[in-house]
Write a structure and sequence with these properties.
The complex is a heterodimer. Chain A is mostly beta strands. Chain A contains three helices and 30 strands. Chain B is an alpha+beta fold. In chain B, strands 2-1-5-3-4 form a five-stranded mixed sheet, with helices on one face. Chain B is globular, with a radius of gyration of 12 Å. The mean pLDDT of chain B is about 95. Classes of the chains: A mainly beta, B alpha+beta.
Chain lengths: ~375, ~90
């Protein structure tokens, strides 16, 4: 049985299949933007929701049928000062132009990550929170939220968001957090201090990590889809080098040529890595209108995998909208509401759903 | 205290277990929202932000008039009144 938890702009699609061909469909939490999901070791599923008027929250379910909202959620401390540019981008302005004294608020939960018996939440305005009691209470990770360089953090086009969380299965004190567009941060002391890790990444116009993947059991080997290319690190992020052989490279708005895109995921048993390139930050469309997943089996060379994917396609794949079920299944959703799946590590694809709202997150579980 | 009925927008009914109308008490719209939040902590997240400020894009319809978030703490209500919480809309 494979279960897909698909977060869309207007609710959660829950798709199930026993044979990876025939899928049952359910749609939960109508009207809520579902921005991220995770499952804890006890099998509880967490859905992060967001609403432009009523703000973010987290719903949980033990059976994927009955959903209950948690009474607690990630929240900044009263009085924390917000980032003026972020507030302007996400529309929290009060139309008077007075951003200077606006508060720091959680407006969206971008990622949920289960590890070490806890659930971590990455949010915008960029922040990191953790629950160790299955969501009954959330603690801010102050070493990150009050980072000494925070005043210099710059938002990306989607705001100042902490969108990627990675953990080390062997070392609970080490974890990584990606922030658009302020960098990729690592802590080695359980969250007290965080160092930015982008040596070797082209940062001529900022530090805009888009997503990073790895195997938590071999945590120091990292693969990074950045605004300015695709990179790998073999030393936990201390140094990075470009790995773009075989990838389509387009011209960014500033003239730099690289492979642009958002999601990057790993099938841990095989070590295969998957990305969905777009034609630069100018267009953000599949190159030549061909929806394509690129696969690397050695972490160096990439090959296009398009069998079953459409041409004449002009929608992309958002940052959190690709997932591996860790049993050979790879799944992704598009910004125009289609879901595609592969049961053979990306060699062939089929359409699972065609008419969902804009897809913001995908998680896949094989049981 | 004054008891009023508050109708919730459909999206918030997932938070209240399907309840469409809740009874709450208070002399102003702000106090009514405070009482709702105390009765239903999950709802509190959606009514108030981190600084315990009423979320700015919530409106309340009361006696056929619109009460904006910034005015809710001063806007008085009477026993038996019906309030409707809704989104502030900015176009079609």
């Amino acid at each position: 049985m494979v279960t897909l938890i698909v977060g869309t702009k207007k609710g959660a699609a829950i798709l199930k299949s026993d044979d990876a061909r025939n899928w049952s469909h359910e749609f939960a939490l109508r009207g809520w933007g579902v921005t991220a999901s995770a499952r804890d070791e006890g099998g509880r599923t967490y859905l992060a929701v967001s609403n432009d008027v009523f703000g973010p929250a987290i719903f949980v379910s033990d059976d994927l049928k009955e959903w209950k909202q948690l009474e607690s959620a990630p929240r900044f401390n009263p009085g924390d000062k917000g980032n003026e540019t972020h507030i302007r981008i996400v529309g929290w302005a009060d139309f008077t132009g007075r951003y200077k004294d606006s508060p720091r608020l959680v407006d969206q939960i971008w990622t949920l990550h289960a590890a070490h018996g806890a659930i971590y939440a990455g949010v915008s305005e960029a922040g990191l929170f953790v629950t160790r009691d299955r969501g009954q209470s959330w603690e801010p990770i102050s070493g990150f939220n009050d980072h000494p360089n925070r005043a210099n953090w710059e938002p990306g086009a989607g705001g100042l968001c902490a969108h990627t969380i990675l953990t080390d299965a062997k070392n609970p004190n080490r974890m990584w957090v990606g922030v658009s567009s302020s960098g990729f941060f690592r802590t080695d002391d359980g969250g007290k201090t965080w160092a930015e890790k982008s040596v070797g990444v082209n940062t001529d116009t900022g530090t805009c990590v888009h997503h990073v993947t790895h195997d938590p059991a071999n945590a120091d080997v990292l693969f990074r889809q950045d605004h300015r290319g695709v990179y790998r690190s073999d030393d936990a992020g201390d140094h990075w080098r470009t790995i773009e052989s075989g990838l389509p490279c387009g011209e960014l708005s500033d003239g730099h040529r690289c492979s642009f895109g958002f999601p990057i995921v790993m099938d841990r048993p095989s070590g295969d890595i998957f990305i969905a390139p777009l034609d630069s930050d100018n267009f953000r469309l599949p190159p030549d209108g061909q929806l394509a997943v690129y696969k690397s089996s050695d972490g160096e060379q990439w090959r296009a995998r398009t069998n079953g994917l459409p041409g004449n396609c002009y929608s992309g794949v958002l940052r959190g909208a690709m997932a591996a079920d860790q049993h050979g299944g790879i799944y992704f959703g598009t910004s125009s509401g289609a879901i595609y799946g592969s049961a053979d590590l990306g060699e062939s694809w089929s359409e699972i759903a065609a008419s969902l709202p804009r897809i913001m997150s995908v998680e896949a579980y094989a049981t | 205290m004054t008891a009023v009925l508050v109708q919730l927008p459909p999206v918030l009914r997932a938070v209240t277990g399907g309840a469409r109308v809740l009874e709450a008490q208070g002399g102003t719209v702000g106090e009514v929202l405070e009482h709702l939040a105390a009765q239903c902590p999950a709802l509190a997240l959606h009514l108030f932000d981190e600084n315990h400020t009423i979320r700015r894009n919530i409106i309340c319809i009361h006696n056929e008039g619109i009460v904006r978030a910034k005015d809710m703490n001063a806007h008085t209500v009477a026993a038996g009144d019906e309030l409707l919480l809704a989104n502030a809309l900015a176009g079609g």
